[in-house]
Each structure stands twice: as structure tokens, then as C-alpha cells.
Amino acid sequence: MSAASLPTGARALMSLGAMTATVAHELRNLLGGVELYATLVAEQCAADPALAPLTGRLLGGVRRLHAVAANLLAVGRPSRPALERAPLDLARLVDELADSAALALPGTGIRLVRRPGPAKAVVLGDAERLRQALLNVVLNAVQAMPQGGVLTIATRARDGVVEVSIRDTGVGMDRATLRRAFEPFFTTRPRGTGLGLAVVREVAAAHGARVHITSRPGRGTTVRLRLPLAEGSPA
Ligand SMILES: Nc1ncnc2c1ncn2[C@@H]1O[C@H](COP(=O)(O)OP(=O)(O)OP(=O)(O)O)[C@@H](O)[C@H]1O
Ligand SMILES: [Mg+2]
User: What is the separation of C-alpha 94 from the centre of its chain, rounded to a whole number of angstroms?
Assistant: First the structure.
């Protein structure tokens, strides 16, 4: 069916989607540059106890905005670009993610625990999309701990599968929330868009990966992402 033969309401929705995608694309590109500079400033200030919390907050805010723009782009684009799958080291990608999370944590009361597993875990994947998905999970974990807590980022490989787990000691989810958590636009946060986990699910599905969430209200949440290791990768 061509766009012209669609009912008016459907056409309006399509152009709304296209407009959202265009705006999100511009924002994402601009914020990518801002995030880079904010990261550089945060690195410079990491050892300064007065400045680190301020630059950490700046970086955290920019990163959240960047993620929202990227998520809007991922769902708003009328036609999804194909995944670019290439061999990539997931252990390193997770390591880099943890490095950048560490920079944004000063002043939040959140302690980062890293449990790196294999030195290398090669998967066939789209690095940018996987980074986006994992960042969404880390942001959720941070947002679930407004009073601080422990963020644990772990990787392990076994039986041809690599598992990345991201655990927080935050507010947790009740059953009803957990059931709907992956729905696009489902959110319980006043400033949430409800796209983070929808994108995680989509990226996981495109990689033949599984996402599993366990959560207890008041205790915290663990999100596990399991991907098949590429042929020849250790474990
Ligand atoms: N780690 C977590 N702890 C507690 N609740 C969570 C966690 N992760 C997700 N949720 C719940 O699932 C909902 C959906 O999460 P999702 O990431 O899709 O959207 P969001 O975080 O609300 O908004 P966005 O990610 O688009 O900024 C959240 O609003 C929250 O209720
Ligand atoms: Mg989110």
C-alpha cells in the first residue's frame, strides 16, 4: 500500500514518525559531540573532589539526553536500517561502558563494582546498537538508585554463550511493571519516554540474544543479556 492510499490519520502518523526521526537524528548527532567533550572534561576532573561530582552530573545528563534521542530515532525511523554485524569483542565493549559509567557516578552515591570475566568474548554484532542497548540498561539501573546503591557490571562466558549482567540495588519492579517493562512507551518515571527496554529487546532479538530480568521491589533489579559467542572465541 502506498502512503497516498492510506487513510488521513495513518498518513499523519507516518509524517509524525518521519519528523520525530529527523529531529532525533539531529539531536543525537549534536549530543554525540557534546557527550565527547563532557567525557573529556569529566576525565580531567576525575581526581578533583570538588569538580568530579559536578562534571559527573553534567556527563550523566548529557548521556541520558543522547540515549533518549538515539532511542527515539531507533523507533521513529520509518524503515529500520539493517544491522551491521561484524566480529566484536563484547568484553571490551562492556569494559568501555563501565569506564564511562564510572565517570558519571561521582556525587550520586552509587558505587560501581566490575566483575570482568573472559579477557575476550567475540560475538557477531552491531557495536553501536549493542552499546546503545547496554547503555539503556545502565541508565535504568542508575535511575533506579536515586539515593545511591551498588551497580554491578559483570561478564562471563560459558558453553558458547557470553552473558552480560547489570545489577542494581535500587527500587525494583513489582510484577505489573515487570510484565510491561519492554512495551514501547511504557514508563513509570515522570521524565521517562519508555523506550529504553523496547530498544534493548529489539537489539537483542536482532542478535539472536536473550534478555532476562529479575527484580524485587525495594531490593533491586538484574538484567542479563546472553549472546552466542562467535566461532573460535574462547569458552
Ligand atoms: N533497573 C530498573 N529498576 C527499576 N525499574 C526499572 C528498571 N529498569 C526498568 N524499569 C521499569 O521499566 C520501565 C520501562 O523502562 P524503559 O527503560 O523502557 O523506559 P524508561 O526508563 O521509563 O524511559 P527511557 O528509557 O525511554 O528514558 C521504567 O519506567 C521502570 O518502571
Ligand atoms: Mg530507561
Answer: 11
Which pLDDT band holds residue 73 (cuts at 50, 70, 90)?
A: confident
Write out the residue range of the structural domain in which residue 228 sits: 85-235
Q: Are residues 163 and 225 in the same domain?
A: yes
Among the listed ranges 3-12, 131-140, 178-187, which one has the minimum average pLDDT value? 3-12
In sequence order, which residues have a C-beta less than 8 Å from that of residue 76 and are 6 or more positions away? 17, 18, 20, 21, 24
Q: Which residues line ligand 1 (CB under 6 A)?
A: 68, 71, 136, 140-141, 144, 168, 170-173, 177, 181, 186-189, 192-198, 221
Name the closest-CA residue to atom 20, ligand 1: 194
For residue 197, the ligand 1 atom closest to its alpha carbon is 18
Q: Please indicate, yes or no, whether residues 165 and 66 belong to a single structural domain of this protein.
A: no
Is it the case that residue 97 has pLDDT exceeding 90? Answer: yes
- Ligand 1 centroid vs 113 CA: distance in angstroms? 21
Instruction: Kindly state the helix (H) or strand (E) to which residue 168 belongs, with its residue range.
Output: strand 161-168
How far, in Å, from the CA of 5 to the mean position of ligand 1? 37
